[in-house]
Amino acid sequence: FNNWRHSPVCREGLGIAAFMGALGLHVLFSLPANSLFQSLDAALFGGSMTEILSPGVMTNLANVFGWLALPSALAGLYYMNRCYRIRARPFWDHWQVVTSFFGNMLSLGALVSGVVIVSTLALMETAYSSAMMGAGILMLIGVSAESIGLIAHARAMNSATHEGAASHFVQCTTFGKTYDCRNALLGVNLLLMMGLLAFAGDGSLALAGWSFAGLLLLATSIVGRALFYVLVIPTTMPGAFFWKNKGFEQHARDIGLAEMPQVGVIPNAH
């Protein structure tokens, strides 16, 4: 936090810290209005905690911190994006990073929230179709945004002449099957989610369909994040510092870094 004026990393940290703090206070101040908390208070303290804390006042404070958490999270994500949009990493220096980060925020956030909310409503034997459909819409928006960004990124890297183009070439050759599989699963998931929103309605069939869509989302997110980090080639030392990169492996052997087991490079046998 010592360089907020110049460093996107510091600003990202500030945004995430503010989000976590505001979210924690939102949960804390929401407790007095919670029926389970009130039941425990009545059983253990005769309801005195509820009287002291005043659920109405605490709810207002919870709302304030809940609203503060939203811009803090957006600011943290924005500066997270700025951390990667640097000229020394041409593979990352594209607006696709924005669609990836914010798309994942919507899709994965909706998936986690949907699992919690739908499971809770199901246990309470309450209708959950509206919550499931709402989470599904956000998942569809997030995956659509990420897919649009990936298409634009591929076109930009195909026509480029910098290290980003080299990274994309490795992505389409050495990791071509993984890349194609991820893209195909994204397309399948988009069609599945659109079909579920249009035709599935509610019930066990819809729940099974959205569960499968969630599993596909997790798979594509993990593979996509791996490709994002593994394939980037820096301008400062092309062919260095990244996983299974032959240039870095040879560099590590030349300077003795390969002798350290944690580096993950096999040293020369002779």
TrEMBL record:
Annotated membrane-spanning segments are: 14-37, 57-80, 101-124, 130-152, 184-201, 207-232
Which organism is the protein's source? Answer: marine sediment metagenome
Full protein name: Uncharacterized protein
InterPro entries with a match to the protein in the record: DmsC
One annotated Gene Ontology cellular component of this protein: membrane
Q: Where is the signal peptide?
A: none
- Enumerate the Pfam families for this protein: DmsC (PF04976)
Q: Name one GO biological process term.
A: anaerobic electron transport chain
Q: Which UniProt keywords apply?
A: Membrane, Transmembrane, Transmembrane helix
